[in-house]
Design brief:
The complex is a heterodimer of chains A (327) and B (764).
Chain A lengths: L4 E4 L3 H8 L4 E4 L5 H6 L7 E4 L9 E4 L2 E5 L4 H6 L1 H6 L1 H8 L4 H6 L2 H5 L53 H7 L3 E3 L4 E3 H4 L21 E5 L2 H4 L1 E6 L10 E9 L6 E9 L6 E2 L1 H7 L6 H9 L13 H19 L2
Parallel strand pairs in A: 1-3, 2-3
Antiparallel strand pairs in A: 4-5, 5-8, 6-7, 6-8, 9-10, 10-11, 11-12
Chain B lengths: L5 H5 L17 H6 L14 E7 L5 E7 L1 H4 L4 E5 L7 E2 L13 E2 L5 E2 L5 E7 L2 H8 L3 E6 L15 E2 L5 E3 L2 H7 L2 E9 L11 E7 L2 E5 L5 H12 L6 E4 L15 H13 L3 E4 L15 E9 L5 E13 L20 E11 L12 H19 L3 H7 L11 E2 L4 H12 L12 E2 L2 E13 L6 E7 L4 E4 L9 H13 L6 E4 L16 H26 L14 E3 L2 E3 L7 E3 H8 L3 E7 L7 H9 L12 E2 L1 E13 L5 E11 L6 H20 L5 E2 L4 E2 L18 E5 L23 H13 L15
Parallel strand pairs in B: 1-15, 13-14, 17-18, 19-29, 23-24, 31-34
Antiparallel strand pairs in B: 1-7, 2-6, 2-8, 3-7, 4-5, 9-18, 10-18, 11-16, 12-13, 12-15, 16-17, 20-21, 21-30, 22-23, 22-28, 25-26, 26-27, 30-31, 32-33
Classes of the chains: A alpha+beta (327), B alpha+beta (764).
Bound molecules: flavin-adenine dinucleotide and iron/sulfur cluster (SF4).
Chain lengths: 327, 764
């Protein structure tokens, strides 16, 4: 049997110490970790249960900044009144993710750290080659069934999609992840595969996410998250967009806009080219659609995922149009 | 074990117990409270656990297996390989054909599909078995696999002459027709995806084998086990009181069943083996992928002159499955000329199997899409098109329909849906950025008939027991058999308990082809009638009976009380009467077989499907019918299709319990929505392996995908179809949903999608 030791951390300090041990993995809601252990992807030698650490589940929202504890549940954050009013895209990204049961278990820290849904990654027995799991072993997905794979940020080593929703909204609004000792932009926290597909985050042994901080802004207050998928719920995005919009006093000229894409890239994908193209311009459907296409610069498909290149800009455009209509 | 508290169920309203009453599921409370014990929830002394090792190649040979690490792992009792598993005998097939091989090897050396079982580990605990199974090393000599129908190596396949249906000169008439359409329609590999996985517990006591296993066919599976192990049929007992969904997949004893039973015999310990979710996608077959071309030639006024149909379905390299693709094509519309032929193509897959309405379901996708295409070609309303070509008799069998309320279904469905308000042009209805489409399609399913048997016991307390080895997989057998016994005997339904799912009860054939309700209500009606006759006989003639002095020629039983029809003389509860005459019980075993049936024929009747009665036997052709009306909303940017309204009018004859029938119809419609928009086994073409074999990636509809569904019963009792007048319910409603949705999508978008599922990339 695959034995592992179980440690319950009662403080962040204790968790950090234990997390520095080789083969140690943190357990929060367990909805990713246990799943991956069952498919033989995660084989921790020590499981450090952080779910009992007190105070890490606080949700603190002020006009200029939200601080969300790493152990806050997805469902609690999604339902939080001030999150809904100050950061609607964050709430919408959360309630469109996974299922009600999962959202009640899963935490914000764990959500950021969820792994790709690449079917080859999740089936080591049948597909030993996977650079993310076993660096240098190759990529089983390239040349295989790629309908759900990424078109942006891919490399020859890995084309796996980052599947999460929340992080897409976070990168749109310049959120930071608090690792206790250091803070960094969520956008920088996630790493595109390059030649090192196994390195998905800028996180060091012994580091624990303690919170996520989101600066408040007018664009965050008028924001939305649109998620397109085959079925209406309980599915990862085929393409999603988090968009925030601030208009000038004339009610039609763009003062500030934030755009990020999900479901189509190897990491949560901020698209500044679209933002730049629209800033200072009056809202106009044709122009919005044209600008949205800029998001796909450098996109590469692998056959069955080709449609995502056409789909993603339309999702961005829809989100902008929706926010414009509610002016 | 299977006694249900009838009080909840019966409290809804007064005459629920009668056949035709809306009695709630009597097994519902047990299921909701968790009291219902499913087959492999049995707690047995000394239970061991088996875990299978599946092939990681789709074609080739196992050259070596290194089991040493697994054998020495903690808790491991045995590692079974093709070399070490005991030898089993070949078993006859479900038609009763003798085995093609004298022996049967459920663990293979020659691999013909990815995931095929090559080894198994048995250990004291499940976790130990899982861990040790991962230590089994298998080496292969891989050969190229044929991954699916479109594989260049697949070829044209094997013609199945028995599927050929022809009359007139279809090709010539098509060539001469003034209006012609011809198109190809494809359905992918789909899976039954029952919530409860497959698996079993096997226990030997000497030469007696008990199997707890979810089963749609206890007697058929018991026969297979008996033949594998060379045992008399009576030595095998199958227990299956509840089934968490089967949809056609749980009617046969399969390779994993043989492994578990063999392991139990070899170790002399009970063995539990449950397939993992991914193994549920590779250990037994789902619906075969199909390809059809449908060519229709018609007059300018829309009258069909000819239908030419060609079909292909995939089957396995070492097993045969024919999905009858011409089944609906040949009977739905009147045509003077017709030709349908079918091939099967061998690919490296597990043998495909039955999934809800095998044959009729893909067949309807072809013809019901094609007729819509023809309607648009001619500019005729698609509903009108169907009425113009209404088949007044079975065009293939050339016999009268027993009943065909399809015209009524079209009328009732169209009325409730508001079809008259539809504008026929594609892309002519919208709501903001959503394109709206309305589609119609018809469906049908044959009335499959067979003979059944049941035991009905009147007990000394006036209660009634019904026993049958048939099963309830959610379709309502417990409930309707209680209703049938209650009505026939004249006792309140809460006094009836129904016991199912034990092969030692009165025998039953397969629960498949929507036939169980018709067969079993007939059998219970008969047995209960015999019990009633005996009760009244005793009341009239037993010297201790208080009725004897009445000198009446008959008595009546109502609400569990015996009295004379005119009300004179005593009025006694059954319990008091039984006490008066000193009887413990009255037991009647009734079956619907002719008296001349031999014991061999009886055995064959219950353990094979060889004695099923053709639906076109005698003067009539017997089928259920339905018409589906569907509204879809298609996002014009995203291509996402959402079904926003379904109205279906259905003819299943007389409904034994409308509440349960509606729920089965709705289940079929929901499954059809999944088929139309979501379901598809995705095969990695390099490895011949399903890569989405789990419930996160194999898309099934969620509640959010399902709109309000309105079902309307337009059936009338059909005396030619069953003893009580019902036709089939369970499979009917899934037939025609996918084409109705595809037709609605065409109406919304102007795009004809002929490959299921209709995913967004096909529309953007
Ligand atoms: C069927 C299914 C569908 C899903 N659908 C969606 C979806 O549509 N959209 C979506 O966004 N998500 C989806 N998810 C993913 C889900 O949101 C994540 O599983 C969940 O958020 C993980 O949180 P957790 O607390 O359970 O994490 P855990 O499983 O406990 O941990 C996940 C990982 O994060 C690490 N970790 C946890 N906490 C910390 C911390 N504080 N600091 C550092 N590392 C940490 C763990 O070591 C582990 O590696 C789905 C999941 C499933 C199973
Ligand atoms: S895409 Fe990435 S995760 Fe998937 S198989 Fe290739 S390397 Fe592994």
């Amino acid at each position: 049997m695959r034995d592992f030791s179980y440690l319950r951390a009662d403080s962040v300090e204790a968790a950090r110490n234990a997390a520095a041990l080789p083969g140690a993995m943190l357990l929060a809601g367990g909805t990713t970790l246990i799943d991956l252990a069952k498919c033989g992807v995660a084989e921790p030698s020590t499981v450090i249960d952080i779910s009992h650490i007190e105070g890490l589940d606080a949700i603190d929202v002020a006009a200029d900044r939200a601080v969300i504890g790493a152990l806050a549940k997805m469902s609690h954050v999604a339902d939080h009144t001030s999150v809904k009013s100050c950061f609607p895209a964050v709430s919408e990204a959360l309630w469109q993710a996974a299922s009600a049961q999962l959202r009640n278990m899963a935490t914000i820290g764990g959500n950021l750290m969820q792994r790709t849904r690449c079917p080859y990654f999740r089936d080591p027995q049948n597909f030993p080659a996977c650079n993310k799991r076993a660096p240098g072993s190759g990529c089983s997905a390239i040349g295989g069934a790629t309908r759900s794979h990424a078109v942006l940020g891919v490399s020859e080593a890995c084309i796996a999609t980052y599947p999460g929703d929340l992080a897409v909204a976070l990168v749109a609004f310049d959120a930071e992840v608090d690792l206790g000792g250091r803070k960094l932009k969520v956008e920088d926290f996630f790493l595109a595969p390059g030649a090192t597909a196994e390195q998905e985050h800028d996180i060091r042994p012994g580091e624990v996410i303690t919170a996520v901080e989101i600066p408040g802004s007018a664009a965050a207050r008028r924001s939305t998250y649109i998620k397109v998928r085959d079925r209406q719920s309980y599915e990862f995005a085929a393409a999603s967009a988090a968009v925030g919009l601030e208009l000038e006093g004339d009610g039609r000229t763009v003062r500030d806009i934030r755009v990020a894409l999900g479901g189509v890239a190897t990491k949560p994908w901020r698209v500044r080219a679209v933002e730049e193209a629209l800033k200072g311009k009056p809202l106009d459907e044709a122009m919005i659609r044209e600008a949205s296409e800029l998001a796909m610069e450098g996109a590469v498909d692998h056959g069955a995922n080709h449609y995502r290149i056409a789909l993603a800009p339309r999702v961005i455009a829809r989100a902008i149009l929706k926010l414009g209509e509610t002016a | 074990m299977t006694v249900h508290d009838m009080k909840h169920a019966a409290s809804d309203s007064a005459r629920l117990e009668a056949v035709g009453g809306r009695l709630s599921r009597v097994d519902g409370p047990a299921k909701i409270t968790g009291a219902a014990k499913y087959a492999f929830e049995q707690q047995l002394e000394g239970l061991t656990h088996a875990v299978l090792v599946g092939a990681t190649i789709a074609a080739g040979k196992v050259t070596a297996i290194d089991a040493r690490a697994a054998e020495t792992a903690p808790g491991v009792l045995a590692v079974l390989t093709p070399d070490t598993i005991m030898e089993l005998r070949g078993a006859s097939d479900w038609l009763g054909n003798p085995p093609s091989q004298p022996t049967y090897a459920p663990l293979v050396r020659e691999v013909t599909f990815s995931g095929q079982h090559v080894a198994a580990v048995v250990a004291e605990t499940f976790e130990q078995a899982v861990a040790a199974a991962a230590l089994v090393k298998v080496w292969y000599d891989e050969t190229p696999a044929i991954v699916d129908l479109s594989d260049g190596k697949a070829g044209d396949g094997i013609p199945i002459d028995a599927m050929t249906k022809e009359w007139g000169d279809a090709e010539a008439a098509f060539a001469e027709a003034p209006v012609r359409i011809c198109a190809a329609y494809n359905t992918p590999r789909e899976f039954q995806a029952a919530m409860e996985p497959h698996g079993l517990i096997a226990r030997w006591e000497g030469d007696e084998l008990t199997i707890w296993e979810p089963s749609q066919w206890l007697d058929g599976m018991a026969r297979t086990y008996a033949e594998w192990f060379g045992l008399p049929f009576e030595n095998v007992r199958l227990v299956s009181p509840y089934i968490g969904g089967g949809f056609g997949s749980k009617a046969l004893a399969l390779a994993h069943s043989a492994v578990a039973a063999a392991a139990a015999r070899m170790l002399d310990r009970p063995v539990k083996l449950v397939l993992t979710r991914p193994q549920n996608f590779t250990s037994y077959g789902g619906r075969a992928a199909t390809r059809q071309t449908v060519a229709i030639g018609a007059d300018r006024d829309g009258k069909i002159q000819s239908i030419v149909h060609r079909g292909v379905n995939e089957t396995a390299v070492d097993g045969m499955w024919v999905e009858p693709l011409g089944s609906v094509t040949s009977i739905m519309y009147a045509t003077p000329n017709f030709s349908s032929k079918q091939n099967v193509v061998r690919v490296n897959t597990v043998v495909p199997g039955a999934k809800r309405a095998p044959g009729e379901n893909p067949s309807a996708f072809g013809i019901e899409s094609a007729i819509d295409e023809l309607a648009y070609e001619l500019g005729i309303d698609p509903l009108e098109m169907r009425l113009i070509n209404y088949a007044e008799q079975d065009p293939h069998a050339k016999k009268a329909w027993s009943t065909r309320q399809l015209r009524e279904a079209f009328a009732a469905g169209a009325e409730a849906f508001g079809w008259a308000k539809r504008s026929n042009a594609p892309r002519s209805m919208r709501d903001g950025r959503q394109l709206i489409g309305w589609g119609v399609a018809a469906g049908t399913y044959p009335v499959r008939r067979a003979h059944g048997e049941a035991v009905v016991k009147l007990l000394s307390d006036g209660s009634v027991e019904v026993e049958s080895s048939s099963i309830d997989m959610g379709q309502g057998t417990y409930t309707i058999l209680a209703q049938t016994a209650a009505e026939t005997l004249g006792v309140p339904v809460e006094r009836v308990s129904v016991k199912l799912g034990d092969s030692h009860f009165a025998r039953a054939g397969v629960t498949g082809g929507s036939r169980l309700a018709g067969v079993m209500t007939g059998a219970v009606h008969k047995a209960a009638g015999q019990a009633l006759d005996e009760l009244i006989g005793l009341a009239l003639s037993d010297p201790r009976s208080p009725f004897q002095k009445l000198q009446a020629n008959t008595l009546q039983v109502r609400d569990g009380r015996i009295a004379s029809p005119r009300g004179e003389g005593p009025d006694l509860s059954i319990a008091d009467f039984m006490m008066a005459i000193g009887r413990d019980q009255i037991e009647a075993k009734g079956d619907t077989l002719p008296a001349s049936t031999t014991p061999e024929e009886r055995y064959k009747n219950y353990t094979t499907i060889a004695m099923s009665i053709p639906h076109t036997e005698g003067d009539y052709s017997r089928h259920s019918w339905c018409a589906h009306f569907v509204e879809v909303r298609v996002d014009e940017d995203f291509g996402t299709v959402r079904v926003s309204r379904v109205v279906s009018a259905l003819d299943s004859g007389r409904l034994y319990n409308p509440k349960l029938a509606e729920s089965q119809w709705k289940g079929g419609i929901i499954m059809g929505i999944g088929q139309a928009l979501l379901e598809e086994g995705i095969v990695d073409r390099r490895h011949g392996r399903i890569v989405n074999g789990n419930f996160a990636d194999y898309m099934l509809p969620t509640n959010a995908d399902i709109p309000d569904i309105q079902t309307i019963s337009v059936g009338i009792p059909d005396p030619h179809s069953s003893a009580l007048g019902g036709k089939g319910v369970g499979e009917l409603a899934i037939v025609g949903i996918a084409p109705a949705i595809a037709n609605a999508v065409f109406h919304a978008t102007g795009k004809r999608v002929r490959d299921l599922p209709i995913t967004l990339e096909k529309l953007i």
